[in-house]
Amino acid sequence: MTTLAALRAEAETLARQLPDLSLQAEAADLVHPGAAGRKRAGSGEQFWQYRRYAQTDAADRIDWRRSARGDEYYVRETELETARTILFWVDPEAGFDWRGDEDHPTKADRARVLMLALGILLSKEGERVGVLNGPRPAALGKAAPDRLAEDLLTPPSGLTPPRSNALSIVASDFYDPLPEWRARLAPLAAKCRHGVLLCVSDPIEHEFPFTGRTKFSRPGSLLDRIFGRAESVRDEYLARFEQQREGLQALASQMGWTLVTHRTDQDALQGAATLALALEQFGGKA
Amino acid sequence: MTLGPFLFGAPLALIGLIALPIIWWVLRATPPTPKAVELPSLRLLDDVDPNEETPAKTPWWLLLLRLAAAALAILGLSLPLYAPGAQSGDAPSGPVLVVIDDGWTSAERWSELRDAALIALDGEDRDTPAHLLLTAPRTLNTDPSERLSRADFTARLRSLEPYPWTVDREDALARLNESGLQPSRILYASNGLDPETAEPFVRALMAKAPLAVYAAPPRGPAAITSLSANAGGAIVTLRRAEDRSANDYFVSALTLDGAALATAEASFASGEREATATFTLPPAALSRITRFQVTGSASPGTIWLWDSADRSRRIGLVSGDATAQPLLSDMHYIRKALEPFASITEGDLTALIEDNPDAIILTDIGQIDPSVVGALTDWVEEGGALIRFAGPRMAANGDTLVPAPLRRASRAIGGALTWETPQALGEFPETSPFAGLTPPEDIRVRQQVLARPGPELARRTWARLADGSPLVTADQRGRGTLILFHVTAGPDWSDLAYSGLFVDMLRRSIAAGKGEAVADAEGLYTPRLTLNGRGQLSPASTGATPLVASDFGVTDPSETHPPGLYQGPAGTRALNTAVDYQPIIVEDWPSGATLLGDAEARTMRLAGPLLGLAAILLALDIIVALSIAGRFQGRRKTTTAAFLFALSAPIGLQSQPAEAQGFQFDPPRPAVQRDPLPKDIEAALDMRLAYIETGDARTDRRTREGLNGVTLTLFRRTSVEPAEPHAVNADTDALDVYPILFLVLPDNPEPMSETAIARLNAYMRGGGTLFIDTRAGGTIGQSGFDGLGETLPGLDTPQLTPTPDEHVLTKSFYLLSSFPGRYAGRPLWIEATSGTSRDERRGDGVSRLLVTDADYVSAWAVDDRGRSLYSVDGGDEQRERALRFGVNLVMYVLTGNYKEDQVHIPALLERLGEEGGVGDFENDGVLDLDDIVRPVRPGADE
Question: Cα angle at B391 between B388 and B394, to 5 degrees?
Fold first, then answer.
């Protein structure tokens, strides 16, 4: 796991290279960046409706300008505006915090960097960013990236859904069987209409470059398996890997989410851009 | 257990070989360790069954490697012994007698002899006792009847060393008979030499029991048997035992501490048993040699110790004249000629005769004291050589102790009043000891004493001049010799003393003396250094006892008198091992004795090599196993890097000093860290300025900064490139290595010590220049030199004068009109030259003392970066002029009157450069200024 400073520095570099990100890129009429109308009355800038004065309303809430036109008293209501919440989640499993080669970062580290870069950009836009099931709730403002960076480095608990609607980004390698993932993601998908599955993988996992008598073990697991000739299972492995990816894509579509794949030997900027693109597409939907 | 030529010490271990098939089976079943790999995506394969899970086979070659290692280990543990000569176990068991020749002739092949003896018990019963008979006699001999167990026998044999004296086989046989031992088998490890004693000995042994003989005669040269030395070198005679091949050996001449002074080759022709090595050495080197040794041989017989009896003679010197000039004294020439190869004593004639030297040399003693004549005559008649040189005193007043009667005057040849020219040397007569020497043609004899002609004279003459008059005469007196050189020993009367011939003549004359060997027949010589059986010189062994001088040459080395150097009243005497020894190989051993060949006498213990080989194979196996398991792949990079680093580390270290030697072009602050040299050596290596420490730290620092400034300026502007200035202590440091010393006085100077003043005076007398700056020029109302007398009491001050306008200081580098320092217009006092004559001027005309108060060092002073430190009255312009004065001052001090003369060079050059100019002067014979100054153009006169 990288240090906070290294993570922050790398993410800042990435964030500088990316264009400004706006979740409302397609809803261009929004005046207030960062605030999205909630289609109901509440505190906000935009006019929502005039409604009849009720006994429970305070007298100073009466809009005299409107009320002067008739006999009724009217109260002016504005549309409820809240900042959007984006929640990040990094798979805390040992197998995710792993790398096949000293030259690349671990998968989890790469995921954190991408997420923090996005978080920096989003908080600049006034969005609320935080870690799903993190130690602190999502936050707004300038300190938000700092808090996000710190929270990203603390392993989160499970995938329990947030209390309110939020945009969730779930990073993992998704090697567990698909039904398992479906079960884990279902509650989340029920709460969050939109989300991204960020699938980070190591090049070795793509290539399976092993030959000869090999004892395989899984990080975080004490079990190991010996293959007399590792090359003989390669085809099978690759097929299954592909199958897993396809299944994952299908799962994301079913949930209405987006799947973003990234390899740690790829450029981090590329990953960040892909992720940003996926997020921007939600802007219209929101 | 015996198996062919192999014996097994622990045969039961061979049962282990049965385990080999089991090892084979286990190894086949156990596959090599797999590579271990981590893979998170393994989860994907959770339910996959590998279709080929058959264990990879152990490769056949790895199997073979492991089996071989196991087999070798088992074989090694069974302690095998390769002994082709071993008896089979069927022979009747009984005591085995081992006879060993342990004299010096065995030294060369001692290990072979010992190994041959070691196998005597191999193949016998465990309890078979061994008996040991050593043929070299000792005072306490080994008792042959002593029973030795197998272990004792081995230990005993291993501790045996050869002795540096010869074997005595008859004595050994007598000892054997005396012990009454009845061996069942005899092994004789013989040196294979001396058939006349060996054959009866072997026959006697065969009469007792079956005999096996192992003979190891020396292969190389057996011994140095004699040595003959003469004035020009030494000849060493070597003998060897076998004579079949032609071989070359080298003999080294060593000093006492083992340094080889010369090496000569001795070539044995095929069929020859004797060879000689000839050393040609200057006498001085010859006198340092204490032993000759055959190179590469470790036997006492191949060492010839050389004692002083052969080498140097003792000579007494008595001189008639006592001149103060050593190079003109007669003694000097004799001493120089004889010193390398004779020990010279000087002194009173009476004492010398008592000392009994080989020869006594008298130079120009007219009449020997009559009270001594008797003793001297006796000494000569007992064999001494009395060598006399003529001279003015002898010519005036001779005595009778001369070979031929002399005329009462000397004959001067080739003087202003004679018609004859100085005479050369004639040929030496055939009968003369000088015969064979070639007289150089350029020797001239200018004066000599003349012998009265007589019938005997021709016979007594050893050397004569070209005109036939005798130059050296000699006569026998008793057993001794009386020799007279008719000239002086020095160069007064002849050139003889200058030539090498003189040395040879003197040496041959001395050789007429008796030599010391005869002198002290009763002298007792105690052993000082003795040879051991390995041919090493060591302090005398405990059993060694002194030897009387007369016994040298007749005593054979033995335990009581081991070969070595013996110290006695007349130097050292040597007792050599192999004097006139004749090595003869025993060719025909009596039939019936089993002769063991070299191979049969050798055993080889195989356990060590076998176990070692097994260990190597196991190590190889580990490497192979690791590489199969893939443990080497990840590490290859780092291993290679570490290996490369290890390789490059020494290279890097070597390149370090090379860098440090790079030239540093920054002399005022050399950054190079050299080993600190002593200050005087450092000062002598590089020209540098120096100042005397006053003890006042601020003033000293200012002086140092000032001198740094001048040094920097000199370095930049002139070809004078001084090194960093030195601070010197006038009391202790060497002063004369500095061309100029600056003494810059603080405000309240302490008086200098007397030593310092005396040393400064010596420095100035020796040509040094002392520059004194009182720095008081800025003080108003007083002369800057007040108190100089108190500070430097007793300084040897020459007459001083203000610097004249046209003094060389004004033009030694820059042209200066004045010498401003920090203060302008201050006088600079230098040594007055007008009053002193030219002879008194020392130091090349450079003033010994310069005194000023203008505070130059402050004007010169710079900091580390070359920036000026102190303000100067006239600003930068005056500072520049002060620096220019500094340059001029150093130039003046360094070049002396050369610069003064240089002033006239343009005029001289102009004069010489003109065509025909010189001729013109010759023509009219008058030289006026116009001739020098006015350029003469060709054709201008027309």
Answer: 75
Question: Dihedral through CA A178, CA A184, CA A186, CA A189, nearest 10?
Answer: -110
- Residues belonging to chain A: 286
- Most A CBs within 10 A among B37, B47, B54, B627, hence the mutation to make, goes to B37
Q: How far apart are CA B680 and CA B738, in angstroms?
A: 9
DSSP states along B544-564: ---EEGGGTTTPPP-SSS-SE
Helix, strand, coil percentages (3-state) for chain A, rounded to 5, are 40, 25, 35
A284 Cα to chain B: minimum distance (Å):
36
B742 pLDDT above the threshold of 90: yes
pLDDT value, residue A189: 86
The larger pLDDT score, comparing residue B307 to residue B740, is at B740
CA distance B241 to B586: 10
Alpha-carbon span B310 to B864, nearest angstrom: 71
The CA-atom distances, in angstroms, between B310 and each of A171, B116, B277, B279, B569 are 104, 42, 18, 15, 15
Question: What pLDDT shows up at residue B914?
Answer: 64
Q: Are B668 and B726 in contact (CB under 8 A)?
A: no
Find where tokens 């001085």 sit: B284
Which range has the worst mean pLDDT, B122-126, B214-218, B426-430, B628-632?
B628-632
Give helix B875-895 / helix B697-717 axis angle, nearest 10°: 80
pLDDT at B714: 92
Residue spans of chain A under pLDDT 70: 1, 21-40, 42-45, 80-83, 282-286
Contact B564, B531 (CB under 8 A): yes
User: Are the beta carbons of B253 and B265 closer than 8 angstroms?
Assistant: no
Using a CB-CB cut-off of 8 Å, the residues of chain B touching A228 are: 50, 52-56
Among chain A residues, CA nearest to B46: A225
CA distance B849 to B770: 5
The helix/strand/coil state of B356 is: coil
Cα separation of A280 and A258, whole Å?
11
Of B33, B41, B58, which to mutate for an interface test with A (greatest number of A Cβ within 10 Å)?
B41
Single-letter code of the amino acid located at A131: V
Closest-CA residue of chain A to B38: A217
Question: What ipTM is given for this predicted complex?
Answer: 0.72
Rounded Cα distance, B97 and B133, in Å: 7
Residue for token pair 């390789």: B647
Please compute the mean of the pLDDT values over residues B353-365 and round it to a whole number.
81
SS3 percent helix, strand, coil of chain B, rounded to 5, is: 35, 20, 45
With CB atoms and an 8 Å threshold, state whether A228 touches B55: yes
CA distances to A259, B722, B736, B858, B890 from B739, rounded to whole Å, are 91, 11, 7, 21, 9
Nearest CA in chain A to B55: A228
- CB of B671 within 8 Å of a chain A CB? The answer is no
Quick one: which of A250, A228, A209 has its CA closest to B56? A228
The pLDDT assigned to A80 comes to 66
Q: Which of B33, B44, B47 to mutate to test the interface with A (most CBs of A within 10 A)?
A: B44
- End-to-end Cα spacing for chain B: 129
Q: Could you say which of A210, A217, A237 has the minimum Cβ distance to residue B44?
A: A237
Beta bridge partners of B249: B266
Inter-chain touch A213–B52, beta carbons under 8 Å: no
Chain B stretch 480-539, residues whose beta carbon is closer than 8 A to a beta carbon of chain A = none
Which residues 49-68 of chain B have a CB within 8 Å of chain A? Answer: 50-56
Q: Which of B99-103, B602-606, B652-656 has the lowest mean pLDDT?
A: B652-656
* Residues B98-118, mean pLDDT to the nearest whole number: 86
Query: CB pairs below 8 Å between A and B: how many?
Result: 93
